[in-house]
Amino acid sequence: MAALIQQDQSPFNPEIHRVERVLCFAAHPDDIDFGAAGTIAAWTAAGVQVSYCIMTDGDAGGFDPAHRADIIVMRDAEQRRAAQLVGVSDIHYLHERDGYLEPTHDVMRGVVRLIREIRPDVVLSMHPERNWRRIQKSHPDHLAVGEAVTRAVYPAVENPFAYPELAEAGLEAYKLPWLWLYAGPEERENHVVDVTGHVDAKLQAIHVHVSQHPDVAAMEAAVRQGMSVNAQRAGLPAGQSAEAFHVVAVNGPGTIAGF
């Protein structure tokens, strides 16, 4: 049986903590749409500015050999159309090779640079821990994203002496308030977002990634079921849909510098 989501253990309270800017990290085009497009649609509908950073070009994805020569351009176009459906137009790439992503200092420097540029209230990232119940969530590139972003968030983003060339270029250190992680182990999840009103937008965004779906009907059924299970685990009323996250408070009223 899946573990219950302990909502009361989440340090984030949407009634108190204001979110105006969000920066989302993913390994491949379509990862964000599967993991968090409902939440992102809710954010943008409320006026939140959301940006994406896709670390690879998704060049090893797809199922049709005929797409190989054009897969990077195809997947970029799919991601941009999908993003528009949930209110996002600002998309960045690190252009790492699909299947070869590692949490190197070059990658972490790119993450720190973008966080310092955008200065979001929330960084949303794939989880650095493997999900043993559904290992497909834990592609090695996914884990690398989680590790690179988590390392970058603390301490590099807020350390003025980390990657000093960034500060010299005018990108000053920044204390990030929140880190939200998706696609991780269920037992880590401590926060749910009711996305019942944004299920159609999420599914439309996922459907755009036609190069990745050999069985569209099975994909949609699995996504709907996953959101329904999340809602049940969180004790939401029958018929509701939810996305689940591991929310970490990085900097807040009780944070002591260096600890």
UniProtKB/TrEMBL annotation:
<dbReference type="InterPro" id="IPR003737">
    <property type="entry name" value="GlcNAc_PI_deacetylase-related"/>
</dbReference>
<keyword id="KW-0862">Zinc</keyword>
<protein>
    <submittedName>
        <fullName>N-acetylglucosaminyl deacetylase, LmbE family</fullName>
    </submittedName>
</protein>
<dbReference type="Pfam" id="PF02585">
    <property type="entry name" value="PIG-L"/>
</dbReference>
<dbReference type="GO" id="GO:0016811">
    <property type="term" value="F:hydrolase activity, acting on carbon-nitrogen (but not peptide) bonds, in linear amides"/>
</dbReference>
<dbReference type="GO" id="GO:0016137">
    <property type="term" value="P:glycoside metabolic process"/>
</dbReference>
<dbReference type="InterPro" id="IPR024078">
    <property type="entry name" value="LmbE-like_dom_sf"/>
</dbReference>
